[in-house]
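[Q] Does anyone have a clean structure-token version of this?
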Amino acid sequence: MGLFFGKGGFGPRPGSPKGKGRSEPPPRRPGPQMDEEAQKAAMKKALAVLTEEQAGRWREMIGETFEGALMLHPRGPGGR
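[A] Here you go.
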């Protein structure tokens, strides 16, 4: 009975620093990023191997280029 209803609870989680409860996850590392010129060069190279029909279908699927700003939530609802 003391285990569930007694003083102290269950203690720290296995693998966490003793007495500190849950530890924070390690910070995320940024992924590889390409500058705008490198992206354009890569897209030009990829489109060069397509047939005219494939290139037309590709343009149809992606539509017009988006020029506005994107507003993304950094960590989901509530910023947590």
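[Q] Thanks! Anything notable?
[A] The two ends are 36 Å apart (CA to CA).
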